[in-house]
Amino acid sequence: xxxxxxxxxxxxxxxxxxxxxxxxGTQLLGDEKVICTTCWHDFPETDYHLHDVNPVExxxxxxxxxxxxxxxxxxxxxxxxxxxxHHLKYRGETEVxxxxxxHFGRALxxxxxxxxxxxxxxxxxxDKKLKERGYNQSACIAEGISEVTGIPVxxxxxxRVKHTATQTHKSRSERMNNVANAFALVPHHELxxxxxxxxxxxxxxxxxxESSAKMILTANQSQISIATLAYxxx
Length: 234
What we know:
Helix content is 38%, strand content 15%. By secondary structure, the protein is an alpha/beta fold. The longest helix has 15 residues, at 94-108. It is globular, with a radius of gyration of 17 Å.
């Protein structure tokens, strides 16, 4: 499905089913937008950004050098978080990603380290996947974070040069092989001497983040911190 056709389909859906929560499907009321107040209240927050040691850091430790690592929410299947991310990733509802990013950004402002960040880089999609979907869900989240924190987003310096099969149902070793050499820095990139906040939607095994982080770290004097919207519980 092309990006244009997806946008047209989204507009038709919104015409007949307007103003419903992307997480629970109930009618939005008053000033509610995208996600209802009840769901925002009930989403399981991790508070990992407030702790130097957390499961995301433990998952990344020893695989590549990083400064900080966090995730905003716990992720389980058949939950409202999964439903909302499904709307973002497969139904073209980019405002869901921006709304999540804004909440994430407000949480990150409570951390002791977000002011160290120079630039936000979302994990890129391949050109083929970007053309099919019409947008990058991680970039939507990054834009929301940027709106709140004021940290600029760079979607140009890191490219996904290999179109990979979905990571779903793959083992950790299969995921690593799947994304090996999948990323590259563009010529004249702007990541040298920068502390990069690498943003993705969900961390499961961390294979995609590891591959993209290692490529960013080839930039002269660069540093990495990790922020994923959700942490998949094993």
